[in-house]
Amino acid sequence: MRHDSRLSRMLHVLIHMDRHNGSATSEKIAQMLNTNPVVVRRTMAGLREDGYVRSEKGHGGGWTLARPLEEISLLNIHRALGSPEVFAIGLAIDHPDCLVEQSVNAALRDAFTEAEAFLVSRFASVTIADIARDFDDRYSRCDQPQGPAACN
Amino acid sequence: MRHDSRLSRMLHVLIHMDRHNGSATSEKIAQMLNTNPVVVRRTMAGLREDGYVRSEKGHGGGWTLARPLEEISLLNIHRALGSPEVFAIGLAIDHPDCLVEQSVNAALRDAFTEAEAFLVSRFASVTIADIARDFDDRYSRCDQPQGPAACN
DNA sequence: TAGCATGTAACTAATCTTGTTACGGAATAG
DNA sequence: CTATTCCGTAACAAGATTAGTTACATGCTA
């Protein structure tokens, strides 16, 4: 079962956009994510619709942040991506009328519903600015001579 | 992203096996799950290795419960299935040396780790007998004349 | 108006899971 | 001891989903 890494990727992009503060073309972003411009446009479209980024055409165009990172939570981005399915494990619906299946699914549904509520509240409580601050910490530490080799 | 419904299906099967208490062939189970015998054997193999069911070859063979449902938790079955990935959302690893990616992934990993711990403890606290009891409730209720149409 | 950048549809490729076929081995009935 | 039944497993085919790609239209700016 393959992972959906769009959330991780979008957070990555938004922080880079903020720190480099300027506009970035889909081409540039695609290089950053090891993918291609069309995929970037597809993915960023949701963020634009929800007002977190803006896109401009023509010379000097590209993508820019529409709001400060303090005002964007992980949940906001999750939703902007269409609230993709969180779990890779799901319920069987082979015999919807079977009472055994109903009991099994009710039990599993309870557990997954609670776990998702937990995750959602966690996502709501973290802003991208929080993550960017953590990045600043790492960066200042690795800026030292004895720091890690790669700080791109 | 397609769901892995093996957990739900295996719980379903185990309860049926217990309530009908006798052995069931892969063929029978396959019919119950709208699938085919080879898939059943593949999936049940893990449960057998962990000692929850036994399989016997030849005439009158098939699958039987090796332990009472009281002693089998949802977590046991989850593990017997190889502890499949719980989440459909994952971390991007396009640039492992990029400190921004590291910060993003650290934040996401924290959230997912906690959510998974929650789910695991939930799974550990529910036995299949608990679910079977819930089934008994539903069954006794629907046994009434005014109950649901299908009580297979 | 030339060139750059996004928007989007349509198609291709890669991947993953499930379903299927085929055959081997073990147990049992008769 | 032989035919039948059933599991075990490998190997292959089919189906579904996602990411990647191509192509072309639109819009903006110099």
TrEMBL record, chains A, B:
SUPFAM superfamilies: Winged helix' DNA-binding domain
Domain of life: Bacteria
InterPro entries xref list: Tscrpt_reg_Rrf2, WH-like_DNA-bd_sf, WH_DNA-bd_sf
A molecular function GO annotation: DNA-binding transcription factor activity
Coiled coil: none
Pfam family, one: Rrf2
GO cellular component: cytosol
Identification of the protein by name: Transcriptional regulator
Source organism of the structure: Phyllobacterium sophorae
